[in-house]
Amino acid sequence: MISDVGYGLNSLAHLALLLLLLTVRKPGAAKHLLVLATTATFLWSTTLITSLFGPISLSWLLSADVLKQLAWLLFLAGCIQTSFSNISDVLKRPVTLIIIAPALAALLTPYLLVVNPAWSFLVLIVLSLEVLVLLEVVYRQAGREQWAFKPIIIYLGATNLFEFVTYANATMVNQVEIGYIAARGYIYFLLMPLLVISIRRIHHWGIDIFISRDVVLHSSLLLVAGGYLFVMAVVGYAINYMGGNWGATVQIILVVMSFALLATVFLSNGFRTKIKVFITKHFFANQFDYRVEWVKLTQWLTRAGDTSSDVYYAGLTGMLNAIQYESGLLFKVTQNGYECVAKASPITNTASTDNNESLTDSKENNATCTTLETLASYSDKNGWIIDTDAYLVKPFDYEGLKLDRDALKAWGYQLFVPFLKDGKLWGFAVLASGDNEKISLNWEVKDYLTAVSEQVGTYMQHHEAAQVVAENAQFAAFNRMSAFVLHDLKNVLAQVDLILANAQQHKHNPEFIEDTFETLEHTKARMEKMLKQLTDKKAVEEGVNSEFLISELAKDVVNNRCSGLRPLPTVHVLKETAVTVDKDKVANVLYHLISNAQQATADDGEVDVVITGNSDNKSQLVLIEDTGSGMDKAFIEERLFKPFDTTKGNAGMGIGAYDAKTYIESIGGKLTVQSEPGRGSCFTLYFPIG
């Protein structure tokens, strides 16, 4: 029963290794042979569990041992030469057949394993010696990679030396000692980590198995718990054995208190952190699990708020979380020096409420300010991350850096991490470990912190750039609206000029006076609307839609707003349906296009406004035709609808056609142009119906 536990543990361990090997996608003889050997060991160990398969006969035991040895001999034959691409290449070599010949002979000759156990013991002794000889050959030819091969050499050497002793002893007493058989499962299980270490070290095998830090942490905690409970059980047994009547009571008390103590220790974050740091330092080649840390940093930064203080605080705490530090300050370079924009400490665990604190106010004395300025100036030149604790011990590692050692000791921060932008210092963070363990700034930590600072710095700089873009967009929108208002003011001024030009001649005419007041009333209404545009953005965006006939609006525009130019337009109504749109905006569109047509046409030319329907009865068409100078195709495609591009010099704003096209498209319609130089133009407006 005791042996079953050992073989069971060994089976589970080799099954786990086998599953890891099967996840490796890269093909190769080394992987396939290792999979074969691991599978053979797993099956060998499983078949020796008597509680599952019943008592094991001697012939079955010997056959299982020979099969296992055969698989490992094939693996070692493949290790002698590294140029094999598949298993068939290994089997084709004559030396491979010589290596596996004893095992094949034993399997193919039942007499050896069934009738005469003494010969079987001798065969297994030979196979064990053969493995030991091959291990010596593999180790010597490994050359510079002996360090990588050493664990697997120890694993196979120790297990096969034990096999040799087992069967050498069996040869002398003519039977296999049960103690040796019971111990084998435990020995293979305890030595197996050496096999895993070699697999990770030998890179040319192409087997890159991965065991996460969390799995190792939990496994280690379980191992510690098992060892602790085992010791407590032994102590309890000793007390029960020696304690007489009180022994059982004391044993129960000890067991309960042991479980309580174990639970208390395992629920301690400090204990778990120390175990994790120990495992990271001593069992992994890399100090950080970069995939996990990068995902955590990205998720942390994406949860930040929209305000600058939230973004800066998220960047600072992201840096702290990356190395498990507790407190820090984040500074940004300004024209007046350095500004503290975020704080983090284990006491508040929140961003500073006063993020506008200056560098001078952020520390208690000028010596500390001088330290920060010196570090920032030094890092601005080379972009280095600076470990102030290391500077106190080895100042020569930072050539050219001169710091006040007394001020540095009283400062309390260990790491100075710069944030660069275009090769210049954008800002920096100073970090302190607090009660946590300090990290050593070796090459890996430097590379890791450089990558983290690049990510965090880019995140904060992108946020600032986004704010600038948003502000510029607001200014651009305001400028655009102002341009349209100025354009309308110019039109209002033209109406006022028209009144003044005719005032001397018609000021005694009652009809002229009546028209003047009507025009002034219309001008007042337009100016009120323009003021509303400047003060109420929401009202401008929403507009006011109403149902009306475009022909009536077109006649009003021609008679009241375009009558001062020549030629005077003519309105033709062929087919009309009422539309529901913003009447004032449509009036502006018609005025822009009609006045442009008048300005492009000689006084004796023609400008016609034709209102008709579309063939599908889904659009109301308005055609504005002129016999003016016309436009070429390049001008229409490249300049006509480009805002602030005008051919009228200072007399035009260059937004009339752009405004017309933008509005028509915003209501689901379209605007098309047909024109030829010297033959006039035709603008067609499609207003949606319904």
Automatic annotation (TrEMBL):
GO terms for biological process: phosphorelay signal transduction system. One of its GO terms (molecular function) is ATP binding. Residues 484-690 form the Histidine kinase domain. Its EC number is 2.7.13.3. The keyword Cell membrane does not apply. It holds the Pfam family HATPase_c. The chain crosses the membrane at residues 6-24, 33-58, 70-88, 95-113, 119-139, 151-172, 178-199, 220-240, 246-267. It comes from the Bacteria. InterPro entries: HATPase_C_sf, HATPase_dom, His_kinase_dom, Sig_transdc_His_kin-like_C, XrtA/PrsK. The keyword Transmembrane helix applies. It catalyses: ATP + protein L-histidine = ADP + protein N-phospho-L-histidine. Keywords: ATP-binding, Kinase, Membrane, Nucleotide-binding, Phosphoprotein, Transferase, Transmembrane, Transmembrane helix, Two-component regulatory system. NCBIfam families: PEP_his_kin. PANTHER family: PEROXIDE STRESS-ACTIVATED HISTIDINE KINASE MAK3, SENSOR HISTIDINE KINASE. This is histidine kinase. It comes from Alteromonas marina. The lineage of its organism: Bacteria, Pseudomonadati, Pseudomonadota, Gammaproteobacteria, Alteromonadales.
